[in-house]
Design brief:
This protein is an alpha+beta fold. The protein has 10 helices and 14 strands.
Length: about 425
C-alpha cells in the first residue's frame, strides 16, 4: 500500500472534525429509492429512518484506505463499525427485545440473555465477521469508563457486560484477515451517534458489503402505525450483504434478471462474465461472502443483520414475532436465506422505560393488545423491504482488495426497468 494513496475516512456523525461531519451530511443528500420512483407500501415517518423512533441514535466509523493487491495486515481496507443507541448515548436504560435467526450461519452476540430476560442492554453494534471480538470488548470498555465513579447499589447501569454485536463478511473488498477495526474506532462510533438523518450505503459496518451482486451496505426506513388514535413508529436499519443477482426483485420487478452485467470482478462487469476467472479476492469469500457465481439462484451466501425499533408498547414475546416478520421483507426483495447466509434480526421497544429498568419488586407496564400487532408486522415487512433497497441505491461503486470492483445499482437503468413494468412512480 503506497502511503501517498492511502486514505482513511471516518464518518463520525456530530463530531468535532468539521470536514468529516460535512462529508457525512453531504452524503445524506443523495437520492433514495423513493426519489428514483420506486413504489413502496406504507406510510413512512418524516425521515424515513430508524431515527424516526424518538431517542434512537446512529453512529459510524468508516474505514477506507489503500488500493491494489491484498497484503494481509496492511490492506486495502474497506470496513467499519455501526452503533445504534436505542434511547440515545446518554440514557443507559435497557429496552424490551426479541430476536430471530432465519438462518444461523452468522453471529449476533448477547442473544442468549435477550432470549431469557426479554431485555437488551446497551447499544446494538454491527461490524465485519472478524471484528466482532474487538467491538464486543470496546462496548464493555465504554461501560467500564462510564462506571468509574459509580457508587450506587448493584450493577453499574452503563456496564453492558453482554454486548449485542452482529456481523457480516466483507472479505471481497476488505482485508478482513488484517482485523483493522480497533477499540478506538468502536468508541468513536459510539460517541458520534446522533438522531436525525441517517447516512446510508458505504458507511460504518456496511462499508465493504455486497448485496445481490451489487454494492450493498447500510440502509434504513420507517413506517407510521396508528392504533386507536395513537401514532407509533416502526424503524428498520439493515446491514445487507446477501443475495443472488438472479433473484433480486425491486417492487416486485425482476431487476436482477434485467441487469445480468455489472457483476463483481476486474473486467468491467461485461455481460456473461465467466466467474471462474474471478481473482482470488472473490474466492477468498468463505462462509459469509457473496456466492462465487452471484448470478446463481441456488448458491445464495452472505448475511444480513437487521434491527427493528418501535416506540409502541410491545413486550419481548411480541417483539420476537416482529423480528420474524423481517424474513418476509427480505423475501420480497428475492432472498431465499441460503445455507451459507447469516440472517439474524433483533426487534426492540423504547416504551415502558421504567418497567424495563426495574431491578427489584414489581413493575407496572403497558402492553399493546395482540390483536393490534398485525399492523406492526406489516410495517416491519414494508420497512425491511425498503431499507435494503435504500442501502443499494445509496451505495456507490467500490474497488477494493486485489482491484476487485463491485458496482452500484445503476439508477437510470433501474428507473427504465420499473417504467417498462409499469411500476415506476413518476
Amino acid at each position: 500500500m503506497r502511503r501517498s494513496r492511502a486514505r482513511i475516512v471516518l464518518f463520525l456523525l456530530a463530531v468535532a472534525a468539521p470536514l468529516a461531519a460535512a462529508a457525512a451530511f453531504a452524503a445524506q443528500d443523495k437520492p433514495r429509492a423513493r426519489d428514483l420512483g420506486v413504489p413502496f407500501e406504507g406510510r413512512p415517518g418524516p425521515l424515513n429512518a430508524i431515527t424516526d423512533v424518538a431517542g434512537v441514535e446512529v453512529g459510524y466509523t468508516t474505514l477506507i484506505s489503500g488500493e491494489g493487491p491484498l497484503v494481509v495486515g496492511k490492506g486495502p481496507v474497506r470496513t467499519g463499525v455501526t452503533a445504534v443507541w436505542p434511547r440515545g448515548k446518554d440514557d443507559a436504560a435497557p429496552v424490551f427485545a426479541g430476536w430471530f435467526a432465519l438462518n444461523g450461519d452468522g453471529e449476533l452476540t448477547g442473544t442468549t440473555w435477550v432470549e431469557d430476560s426479554g431485555i437488551m442492554e446497551g447499544p446494538f453494534m454491527i461490524t465485519n465477521t472478524l471484528s466482532v471480538g474487538i467491538v464486543h470488548h470496546a462496548v464493555v470498555r465504554w461501560g467500564v469508563r462510564k462506571s468509574v465513579d459509580y457508587r450506587g447499589d448493584g450493577y453499574p447501569p452503563w456496564l453492558a457486560s453482554l454486548p449485542v454485536v452482529g456481523e457480516t463478511w466483507d472479505g471481497t473488498l476488505n482485508d478482513i484477515l488484517g482485523q483493522h477495526v480497533t477499540e478506538e474506532h468502536t468508541l468513536a462510533a459510539l460517541a458520534s451517534a446522533t438522531g436525525g438523518k441517517v447516512v446510508e450505503g458505504n458507511v460504518g459496518g456496511g462499508t465493504g458489503m455486497i448485496c445481490h451482486g451489487f454494492k450493498g451496505g447500510t440502509g434504513t426506513s420507517s413506517r407510521r402505525v396508528s392504533v386507536a388514535g395513537t401514532e407509533y413508529t416502526v424503524g428498520v436499519l439493515v446491514q445487507c450483504n446477501y443475495g443472488s443477482r438472479r433473484l433480486l426483485r425491486v417492487a416486485g420487478v425482476p431487476v436482477g434478471l434485467e441487469i445480468p452485467d455489472l457483476m463483481p470482478g476486474t473486467d468491467g462487469g461485461a455481460p456473461g462474465t465467466d466467474t471462474s476467472a474471478w481473482p482470488p479476492g472473490l474466492a477468498r469469500e468463505g462462509r459469509h461472502g457473496p456466492p462465487r457465481d452471484a448470478a446463481s439462484p441456488t448458491d445464495e451466501l452472505g448475511s444480513i443483520i437487521v434491527l427493528v425499533a418501535t416506540d409502541a408498547p410491545l413486550l419481548s414475546h411480541q417483539l420476537k414475532r416482529v423480528a420474524r416478520r423481517v424474513s418476509l421483507g427480505l423475501a420480497r426483495n428475492g432472498s431465499v436465506s441460503g445455507n451459507g447466509s447469516g440472517d439474524i434480526f433483533m426487534a426492540i421497544s423504547t416504551a415502558n422505560r421504567h418497567a424495563a429498568n426495574t431491578r427489584s419488586g414489581s413493575a407496572n407496564l403497558e402492553m399493546l393488545a395482540n390483536e393490534e400487532t398485525g399492523r406492526f408486522f406489516a410495517a416491519t415487512v414494508e420497512g425491511t423491504e425498503e431499507a435494503v433497497i435504500n442501502a443499494m441505491v445509496a451505495a456507490e461503486t467500490m474497488t477494493g482488495a486485489d482491484s476487485v470492483t463491485v458496482y452500484a445499482l445503476p439508477h437510470e437503468r433501474l428507473r427504465e426497468i420499473l417504467r417498462r413494468y409499469n411500476r415506476l412512480q413518476e
